[in-house]
Amino acid sequence: MRNLVKILVIVSLVVSFSSAKKVYKLKMATTWGPTLSPLFDAAVNMAKMAEEMSNGELKIRIDAANKHKAPFGVLDMVKGGQYDLGHSASYYWKGKDIATLPFTSMPFGLTAPEQYAWFYYGGGLELMQKVYARHNLYSYPGGSTGVQMGGWFRKEINSVDDLNGIKMRIPGFAGEIMAKLGVQVTNIAPGELYTALERNNIDALEWVGPSMDINMGFHKVAPYYYTGWHEPASEMHFMVNKKVFDKLPKHLQAILENSMKLAAYNMYAQNYDMNATAWKKMKEEYPSIQVKTFPKEVMDAMKKANKELREELSAKSPELKEVLDSQDEYIKKVREWTKMSDYLYIKDNI
């Protein structure tokens, strides 16, 4: 009898051990600090959903930029295996691979709804995987800020001549466009931006939109707030080490992909609400803020500079040209519907 009990105990232990689910523990690095909402929130929400939907089989630890100390090194860290996943923005890697640039946003390009449609139904996601495959990574949309504002200016811009010689913080591709129009483009650490603007060390700056601008306080010292042109759909990105992803069971791959997809859309909705809330507060507390649109002369000059730069870069990178051509073709199709639906609805109901 005792032997039978021992056998039953052993069998029970073996069955329990064999039926125990393996837990996959992954590490994710973000470009953002832990207080930068809604960007950091997207990473947190994704990890939480992946763990819940997998019933604990997937556990993702998130290291914010203040922990790993390399906010713009996320691609290299995920590529090299130091981290399994990353959350950042594709245009940060244009110096390493210019073809990654359009997957975040391009001046005068797709809006957020248009870009999501391009990603999932217009071949954009396939092109993104093709580009990131060179880095042994998979990449997925990771949340959009939508249209980013054109910046805070201390003086009104009425002509291209008004741009000539002003000092402005505006990084990346948009900065190159502004430089062609005579702007003295500078890059200043985020923590120093308000002081630089307040003390007239710079004349203007671009940040994001009301949701993130409000905490920086730019509206307190610069009265002109210009509408966007340079980042109409700034999409963040999840990156996954290819070897790590391929080793996951199929059901966990699906859970991870769907968690990223849902977290991306949630961030877009969250940021939209944050923009509306922040702008209401700004208007109430600083009614002197003037929302401006750049004059046609300035917009035409920006578009001309944008076209010239795109042609220069495309001539050097067939991969970039392929992505830009795909976006251009999709705009031809989708923009007519955007005009008919959103634009005319809003125009007729103002």
TrEMBL record:
Gene Ontology CC entries for this record: tripartite ATP-independent periplasmic transporter complex
Binding site for Na(+): 207
Signal is among the record's keywords: yes
Gene3D superfamilies hit by this protein: Bacterial extracellular solute-binding protein, family 7, Periplasmic binding protein-like II
Residues binding substrate, per UniProt: 148, 169, 206, 231
Source domain of life: Bacteria
InterPro entries, per the entry: DctP_fam, SBP_TakP-like, TRAP_DctP_sf
Signal peptide range: none
Pfam families for the chain: DctP
Gene Ontology process terms (BP): transmembrane transport
GO MF, any single term: metal ion binding
Keyword Acetylation (UniProt): no
NCBIfam families per record: TRAP_S1 (NF037995)
Protein's UniProt name: ABC transporter substrate-binding protein
Organism the protein comes from: Arcobacter arenosus
Organism taxonomic ancestry: Bacteria, Pseudomonadati, Campylobacterota, Epsilonproteobacteria, Campylobacterales
